[in-house]
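Mods, move this if it's the wrong board.
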Amino acid sequence: MKKFNLLLTGLATTLATTVFAQNISDKWYIGIGAHAVDHTSVRGIFDGYFDTDDYSIVPPLSKLTVARSIAKNFAVDLQASIGEIDNKRLKIKDEFFVLAGLGIRFTPLSESKSLKWLDPYVRVGANYHKYSYKGIKIVEDDPSTHLDAYDNDYNPKKNYKLGGKFTGHDNNFILNGGVGINFWVTKNVGLNIESQYNWATAYSKDYINFFQHSASIIFKFGAKKEEPLPPPPVEEEEPVPSDRDGDGIPDDEDRCPDTPGLPQFQGCPDTDGDGIPDGEDRCPNAAGPAQFQGCPDTDGDGIPDIDDACPTVKGPIENKGCPWETKDVTFRLKNINFEFNSSKLTAESLPLVKDAAKLLNDDSFEGKKFFVDGHTDRVGSVAANNRISKQRAQSVVNELINEGVGKDRLVARGFGKSELLCKQADIKTKKDEEGNILYPDQESCDRSNRRVVVLDQSGDNVSVTKEVKIRK
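Not the wrong board. Structure tokens:
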């Protein structure tokens, strides 16, 4: 046993020296240490996992690890373990043991700048395993072949017979997985602790599965040496450059050489102190955010004051920053039409009602309720006009509701021909503020009277004329 371990020490040292010499320019580390094998705790970490009396411990220099980083947080490694191991489950003593294979690691803290000394990882691997199980055979239907599970020095309360079906081999394929931690004592020297579960894929029973625990001293190397920077060239003294505006920035580097400014703006001023130089600031005397090119947005409606027709009141951009009014909704409905002698809206009128619905749902009208008033021209009887004006107003209300306006916010009213905008005396006589005749003929007069108007129920412009009542 001692001669074997001495030979193992010499081989590991030679291999470590060779690997170091050959890979001085790469990201490598090498670990040399001892390992322990536990065949008795394969049923779980609470089944004797920490009972070191049942470990088969191999002295130092019995495990060699060579690892190389391949990408951020990932590394590959080659591990080889050797020694004389007991399998206490099958009562095998001092049997020659080899476990060698490749693995891949995930190292979540490998790029950490605050925890450079701590390097945990998760590892999976595939291995060749040599350990002689020849001659051990258990026949499932033959209880006489069942074996006692443990040596006498193992916990006698856990003695039981190993049964089922099992035929041992010398050479096996092993998959393993586990966790480990590297503790870097210095930049290039550290301590590794690792624990892995090893699973023999060729057996239905776990009789040769085992935990392997190891501790190693590790050495990291391969960092590229940084070449020292060349000494700065000796510069000849040059004449002091001119600075006309006296802001400390030479004229040949000053974008505004005649106006004192700030270094971060290459010598140009920022009068309002909003971080935008005056030359790029649409509002150089009023601080504002960069998204509005330095202009403020007092009402916070997303439209800078310089472009906002109502800078102190929120409003949509479609209305130049001003809130919508009921006259805007009525204007949308100005050109709606109904089918002849009917309250049904024409197909061409539906998009106009849809536009009016968008306005009524805008924040400008939040919480407000409205009258939708129908009016007719002078033609026809009072009863007929009363009926059709109320029905047409209701048709508009129904379509507004279809477009998402709350039903409880709308009331349809009909006024027939009781509130004419244009009377017979206005034709060819009534003018607008610019002196233009409003109603050049009878048709234009009648058209202005046939209308649907939207009024705020709490507003000042609510009609005082009594709403017409339709007989049911």
